[in-house]
Amino acid sequence: MFELAVLDSALRMATPLILASLGGLFSERSGVVNIALEGILLTGAFASIVATYYTGNPWAGVFAGVFAGILISLIHAIVSIVFKADQIVSGVAINLLAMGLTQFLTWIIWGSSANSPPVQGMAHWSLPETWGPVARGVNTVIGHYPPLVYVALALVAVSHVVLFRTPFGLRLRATGEHPEAVDTLGVSVHAMRFAGVLMSGAFAGLGGAFLALNTHQFVKNMSAGRGFIALAAMIFGKWNPVGAFAACLLFGYAEAVQMGLQGQAVPTQFVQMIPYVLTMVALVGVIGRARPPAAIGKPY
Amino acid sequence: MNRFARLSQLLSPLVAVAAAFLVGGLVVTAIGENPFRIYAILFRGAFGSIDAIGLVLFNAVPLIFAGLAVAFAFRAGLFNIGGEGQLYVGAFVCTLAGLALGGLPAVLLIPLLILASAAGGAVWAAVPGLLKARFGVHEVINTIMMNFIAVGLTSYFIINMLREPGQMTPQTSEIALAGHLPRLAGPLSRIGIPLPQANPLNFSLVLALAAVWLAWYILYRTNLGYEIRAVGMNSQAAEYAGINVRRTIVLAMLLSGAFAGLVATNEVMGFRHRFLDNFSSGLGFMGIAVALLGKNTPLGVLLAALLFGVLNTGALEVDIFTDVPRELILVLQAITIILVVVGNEVFARRAAAREGRAAGVPLPATEPSREA
Amino acid sequence: SAEQPGSVDGALRVGMVFDVGGKGDKSFNDSAYRGLLHAADQFGVEHTEFEPGQDADRETGLRKLAQAQYDIIIGVGFLFSDAMRKVAVDYPDVKFACIDFDPRPGETLPDNLAGLKFREEEGSFLVGVIAGLFSKTGRIGFIGGMDIPLIHKFEAGYIAGAKYANPAVSVTVAYAGATPQQAFADPAKGKELALLQYGRGVDVIYHAAGSTGNGVIEAAREVNRQAIGVDSNQNYMAPGNVLTSMVKRVDNAVFKTVQSAVEGNFSGGLREFGLADDGVGYAVDEYNEDLLTEEMLSVVEDARQAIVEGTISVPTE
Amino acid sequence: MSERHAVQMRGITKRYPRALANDRVDLDVEEGEIHAIVGENGAGKSTIMKVLYGLTPPDGGEILLWGRELSGHRPADAIREGVGMVHQHFMLVDTLTVAENVVLGAEPVRGCCLFDAAASRERVRQLSSEYGLSLDPDELIENLSVGLEQRVEIVKVLYRGAKILILDEPTGVLTPQEVRELFVILRALRDAGRTIIFITHKLEEVLELADRITVMRDGRVAGVVSAAATTKEELARIMVGRDVLLRVTKEQARLGEPVLQVSRLSAVGRKGSHVLEGIDLEVRSGEVLGVAGVQGNGQTELVEVITGLRKASAGSVTVSGRETTNRSPRQVRDLGVAHIPEDRQARGLVLGFTMAENLVLGRHHREPFSSRGLLSLGDIRTHAERLIEEHDLRPRDPDVDAGHLSGGNQQKLIVAREFDGGPALLVASQPTRGVDIGAIEFVHTSLLKMRDQGAAILLISAELTEIMTLSDRIAVMYGGKIVAEFEGGRVGEEELGVAMTGGAGPTARGSVSSDGAPGSRHATGAR
Ligand SMILES: Nc1ncnc2c1ncn2[C@@H]1O[C@H](COP(=O)(O)OP(=O)(O)OP(=O)(O)O)[C@@H](O)[C@H]1O
Ligand SMILES: Nc1ncnc2c1ncn2[C@@H]1O[C@H](COP(=O)(O)OP(=O)(O)OP(=O)(O)O)[C@@H](O)[C@H]1O
Ligand SMILES: [Mg+2]
Ligand SMILES: [Mg+2]
Fold first, then answer.
1. B190, part of any domain
2. Best-predicted range by mean pLDDT (A265-269, B3-7, D92-96)
3. What is the pLDDT of residues D36-77, one digit of tens each?
4. Which of A72, A74, A228 should we substitute to test contact with B (largest number of B Cβ atoms within 10 Å)?
5. Domain count, chain B
């Protein structure tokens, strides 16, 4: 259970979850529930492949994923912030929209309702071999992760700093707790919430880009429920970047262990349940009540 | 509420649906198809014949149950994303009972299987309910997790223990004939509605309508409903009023799960007569959309489920007979939801503004009381 | 695609209903679709096709096609078995064919329903032989989509073949998921499953997991090991890293079925396609010919001969 | 007093869907004065201030600051022009620290873009010592008493360099000592040249503190008077438009059997500390026992234990001789205990329920409102119509949602419900908080009427005048204990105040407040 391959796998499985849950966190910290993470992941995945397909450059795909994530979360922002509609309804609708739109466009662009052709993937980062044994050593340790894994890890730290060490983060957190207070201080609640929701789009879009670029392909509904797991991780992590990160690692780890345990005497279906049962047990036993931002879900 | 507000309550979803069709039409045009032709085919698929209408209803039935499940829990302030898992367990228990109790006559077996469906769903929903009531764990996470677990568990039992002998297909044998819900084609033909015999519409529709009524009745005519709504709107006040909040949460989840479990009456008792692994393909999630579109009221759920039934049924026709894929319908559904909620807000604000203008005068300040 | 019932020029009308995954899956469904296109090319038949959104749509869709006077309706995938049985009886003038038909013991099919089965285990046996011969580590892997009987056939044949080639070989087996989503449409999961197996010394992995398997092939490319494709020839997807593909000639079956209808000699009943009639096989092309040695191929061909002659019987479970 | 006008508002009109909140209001505030605005609930006081602060755009009228027209109608514009506001409901973020709340929206920055926490702390320290407002910059708001929260609000305003301070009902939730301290601070601010606008219902305060007074009624200005030249009675008359009984008269209590008996009652808070310690109480039929105390000293918890909302860790509670210790709220209610909760919106009402539904809350499960698990809608409606009639609830429509009622009417609804059905014991917690003098008068007379009909009444109030006028006996709580008991009418405000603070400094808090019930702190924030 602790072999390197399993840990590696855990980190990679966790990466899209980490990105999506960080995204969800910015949205929810600003007071906007975001159950659209699933749809944003999917949209990001799709856009990243489209862009890579046409440009041949996976980094263009990364930017397209982020951009598409922002675009689709803009719908969520407009519907739930400007029009003050129910945030959960909006999220459900966006999930549907993402599902339909990505399949529809897959069909338009590639004539397939199932998947895209393979595209150029992202080269792993590594030091030049000419640097000698040191470079080789470093490469064997870190070289087997896709670049976006490092980006995700860095973003955990960045998110923590942004949320807890910048004026923006202070305002964002205050907006989720007590929007009136923020408003009376001359800070625009709408602007903060737009920022939160759009950031969630950017992060989850990036998560989608990772998901697709890592397999070099878009497959319909390839988010496969990860947006919901990310949401659970965010709650599990008590709306903190580091907490959410830890929860994602746990989920990723449980998933990897599950994959690694298969083929033993236990029926696969039971092994496949491990992450979910583990989550429930952990929630009851370790974590208990998590306190969401006080004004979450309430239009302002 | 004044008449304008009431009218707009009715009107706003209609306008939204129309607007969604407009947007969908633009998309269709953009891909070089004639939207009028596509929509004509869509509506032919949904309304073109008695058969088509029967299919609309048939497709609406599971959405009614799944939507009620979400809406009912919502009234207690709970967000039940676990409809999918609950309906699997409901169908599983129903199938088990239908296989085991073959000797019973229909008058006994049918009610028993209906109960079994509801009970299966209820038990599955009770777990997150209990965890919420007892440990305060957010039901959203647990219902999601329970979905995955339900799918895995039923899959295991269906494939490894209950699979129809000699079959590859991961499905059980047929349940006892006495447990089949009759199709509606026969009775309807007798009263002059020529629904084809092959149409899958069955008595589960009647159960769905009864469930809509029951949900409404429980919520608005019983103590329990009063308490559920009180807990949902203000659990502190409910506690103050002597309502056992934890118990109410568990009960609300139980009932919510029971509604989800009743999907089995259509799938297992009325249509396939067996449990097919992974039969649902996301009904539980569509239930969320249906409930929200129906504003979490039983009647709203019914209407929203019918709308989705129309779209799904028409989508099949479009998919078969044109080059426009069914995904367009998903897009259409999503746009409809977005526009309905936006429309509601816009209408509500306009109604409020009107009311203000109509009132025009300040409210009477607190009048001195007569006891003074 | 056609919309109006009744054909204009008397051409035969063919309707095809896909399995989960649908047109463009580069695998099972595409193989069926290729057969249809080939037939359209050859015989000028008209055709339409669609993918059902939910389970009940299978039966409804078949009926709609029958009502719209399609002459022959092909369901792709065993999930159509029940619906086909019912609908075929209601429309005796329409011909039906079901790929991977799942017969009940002792069942006889109506004259207008052809059940087309494949002995995937036989093809899987041969790619298993190749894997067993190729593996340097003596460890090979299998990744299935869902833990269901159909996929067990692939697994059982593959393992038997590998053991035939190398009795000491060990096979690691994994399944992707319990929902169709996770099982057949999650390449990220497939890739991780494969990387994990490769990380444990496995050097060849055979997948039977739809789009999830695309991740397996991607993993092979990434760590420069071998994958084995399934259903369609997937060798091109990562040249040099797809050892071979177990091809299931659904295209041939579809083509032949349409042909029989065109020529007026369509007959109902069960038909099984195995190694003997090229219903299944393994792919060798420019992408993998450098990987397969003469000796390997001769062992494989011997095995094929033995299976056809019945001296080797391949397990299905 | 300077000649300059700090604020001139001309013809301000503000219309809400259900009310004309401000109707051509003119307001002149001179530089360096303390200007009070008084008026009943809903008179439009908060609205005119929100307009001034830019929170609410007016439908008409103009605003001049120091003779210049105010540009823009956002709080940011007002803040820039030197206007600061302490809101009626505090605008503090619970989960942030004092310093973070103070600098929010105008944060000091370190480096390129990092929040400078050290500088924030330093500024808060500096400002609070400048005006004698001792505050710990690192304390979380959720751990502060209301009095301290208010200081944070004031520091917030000062931090932004406000020259005009608006305080909307700043004294409603303060103890007498805290009020006195606040006044000292406000006078100091005025003497330092700042202009203060001060909203209140409390006429004594106005006369004590203000230089000039604007009286509002029904959204209009009913008069502007100088504090030196008016009396309480005159102010009340301008406010309400009629003579008001400023003091209720009560008859001698006719004591009956003991109804509520509390002995050696203790309860433990979330963090394991004692929130109640060895409380002994007795309330007899026909008697009002007032419980005074600084908020957060266990009053909330005492009420919760008595009504079954919180578990006792030791001791016992009996009602009419029956043991109710740690019984469920329903069991307690069914013994004839009625309860006016301290926070009407958080506990007392389901805002999404209609008036009729709210009027049976807590009794919905009993005959005649339900039988065999089914609601009797007819009886519920009749009941509602009767209570609406008897208590003059507005609007007179049982189908209106309680959320659409004004604050005063919400409170009256609860009073009507809890008074109905002849309870043996009435636990009334802050029964007149935030309601105007007309409604206060009503609640007070009703309470005494109930007492005279033989009910036992436990009255908890932060309003000392209320305690002193209504109570037959007064118990004082401090630190979760009863520290003193007085006969009603035999004790002065001063004496009570000293007992309430346990002899310590005026803003001292007992050990219990930091982990009081979750609702107790919010109670002060909500209206
Ligand atoms: N934020 C708001 N949004 C909508 N309506 C509001 C809002 N605040 C108050 N109201 C409406 O204004 C009316 C009176 O509100 P408010 O509570 O300010 O009155 P009040 O001054 O407390 O009245 P009373 O004199 O009876 O105590 C109510 O009808 C209420 O619904
Ligand atoms: N946001 C709002 N929406 C609708 N109506 C409102 C709103 N705010 C205030 N009102 C209405 O405006 C009127 C004046 O309200 P305002 O809050 O100014 O009263 P107030 O004098 O401050 O009363 P109080 O003493 O209760 O604080 C109220 O009767 C209420 O009906
Ligand atoms: Mg008010
Ligand atoms: Mg006010």
1. yes
2. D92-96
3. 999 877 788 888 999 999 888 899 999 999 888 887 778 888
4. A228
5. 2
Q: How far is CA D169 from CA A60, C179, D35, D187, D224, in A?
A: 57, 60, 13, 16, 19
The residue-averaged pLDDT of D257-272 equals 88
> Could you read off the pLDDT of C273-290 as tens digits, one per residue?
999 988 999 999 999 999
Ligand nearest to the CA of D439: 1
Number of H helices, E strands in chain B: 15, 0
- Look at residue A141 and tell me if it is in a domain: no
Cα angle D464, D468, D470; round to 5: 120
**Domain annotation covers residue A297:** no
Which of the pair, B313 or C10, is modelled with greater confidence?
Answer: B313
Res. C2: pLDDT tops 50: no
Helices (H), ranges, A143-225? 147-165, 167-177, 179-184, 189-215
Contact D279, D265 (CB under 8 A): yes
Domain count, chain D: 3
- Domain with D228 in it: 5-240
Query: Which residue out of B278, B310, B313 would a mutagenesis test of the C interface target, given it has the greatest number of C Cβ atoms within 10 Å?
Result: B278
Q: Looking at residue C1, what is its pLDDT?
A: 41
Handedness of CA B104, B105, B106, B110 (dihedral sign): negative
User: Which residues on D lie below 8 Å from A166 (Cβ)?
Assistant: 113-115
Residues B28 and B105 in one domain: no
Q: Taking a C-beta distance cutoff of 8 angstroms, is the pair D248, D448 a contact?
A: yes
Residue closest to D281 by CA, chosen among D266, D267, D262 = D262
pLDDT at D169: 84
Residue A153 structural domain: 4-117+146-286
How many domains does chain A contain in total? 1
Mean pLDDT of B335-357: 73
In angstroms, rounded to a whole number, what is the distance separating the alpha carbons of residues B29 and D355? 52
| D107 closest CB neighbour out of A170, A183, A294 | A170
The answer as to whether A158 is a domain residue is yes
C-alpha A206/C-alpha A44 separation (Å) is 6
Tally Cβ neighbours within 10 Å of residue B277.
23
Phi, psi of C222 (to 5 degrees): -65, -45
Establish whether this prediction's ipTM goes over 0.85: no
Q: Which amino acid is at A159?
A: S
Q: Does B136 touch chain D (CB under 8 A)?
A: no
What pLDDT does C9 receive? 61
| Token duo for residue C107 | 């069942």
Structural domain for B283, as ranges = 60-322
Give the list of residues 6+ apart from residue D371 with CB closer than 8 angstroms, or none: none
Q: Omega before D395 cis (within 30°)?
A: yes
